[in-house]
Amino acid sequence: MRYVRRISSAFVIASALAVAACSGGGGSSGGVPNPGPTAQYPGSVAFTSSVTDGTVQIPPPYGTASGGITVTTSLTAPSGVPAANPIGAHTTLLYVGVTFADTVVLNGQLGFVIDPPNGVDLDAGPLYVAYFDASTTSWNYGFAGPGAQTGGKIVFSPAPGQFTFQGGTTYYYALLQVTGSAPTPTPTASPTPTPTASPTPTPTPTASPTPTPTPTASPTPTPTPTPNPLTVTSSSISLIGAGATYAQSFQVAEDGYTGAITESDTCAGIATPAPINGNGPTLNVTVTGVAAGTCAITYFDSYGQSVGVNVTVTTASIGVQ
What is the CATH number of domain 231-312? Predict the structure, then answer.
């Protein structure tokens, strides 16, 4: 099973399907479970395995939330869970289990950000994340994907909506690479039936007409409002040096939205975005370079929408003659 590193006050990363729970379960190889620290919501929980390292992205809660989160990984299907085996050519790379200490209601499903898997040719086929639906004891293979490559990471965005995660229940996900389309089954020829004599039909009595009842009008449901898109004023930031002198600013915005705006990034040791969260409709962010490198920042709203900013920091000096 897996290894839990930390929970940060950031957030993220998918196709959306229903949520259900699967109790307990454990794997045998690929990681070591570690008790989760007290959770911060939204945030992320890091994990490691022999296949890839990454983070599970925890969306904002509906109301208040607390309690630890444990993430485990396994190279084989956990006990009591069938192997993820979609139709067609594929490779199941990793199983990930997520357990919440306390029951929480989140504004979105879980997302994932991973490093490119070791020894996997990404040109051979896209990566997907499947979700095990315990209510039907089957895998939902269209849960998230194909993964989007950004800033040297592969991002699986979460499904929007409210989802309840029961405390003490383990929820299972599988990382897959699809390398071919599903085969078309060959039809089986049906035998030619032997004709039989048709019986003489019995006259059908004439039915008396039944009065048509007056239909009762159904109330018209109130449509759910569609949120405005979450945007950034610049999707790419280039810093030509470290420190406040070379810092640059941009804006994250969503018209008519006053809820929380949160972020998840891969910029540790490269750049520092501030603030890391706030409220709509606008969030003004300043990015300060730390050291040369590239990284990515992803921002989210409570509807599950996300938008990314790529950051490049160069610190090479230019001589003057």
Answer: 2.60.40.10
The half-sphere exposure of 166 on its side-chain side, counting CA atoms within 13 A, is 11
This model's pTM is above 0.70: no
Angstrom CA distances, 270 to 215, 266, 277, 319, stand at: 66, 9, 19, 23
Q: How far apart are CA 110 and CA 108, in angstroms?
A: 7
3-state secondary structure of 250: strand
Rounded Cα distance between 138 and 86, Å, is 10
**Pairwise CA distance, residues 247 & 289, whole Å:** 7
Backbone phi, psi, residue 21, to 5°? -110, 155
164: three-class secondary structure by DSSP: strand
Burial of 120 (0-12, 13-18, 19+ CB in 10 A): middle
User: CA 182, CA 184: separation in Å to the nearest integer?
Assistant: 7
Collapsed DSSP state (helix, strand, coil) of residue 123: helix
The letter for the amino acid at 163 is: F
Before 60, cis peptide (omega within 30)?
Answer: no
* Residue 99: closest CA among 158, 161, 39, 156: 39
Structure tokens at 261: 């705006």
**Which CA distances in Å does 186 have to 87, 126, 178?**
14, 27, 22
pLDDT digits (tens, 9 = 90+) for 122-180: 888 899 999 999 888 899 888 888 899 988 999 998 777 888 899 999 999 999 989 87
Tell me the C-alpha distance between 318 and 321, whole Å: 10
Reported as a single tens digit per residue, the pLDDT across 145-156 is: 889 998 899 999
Report which secondary-structure segment, H or E, holds 293: strand 293-300
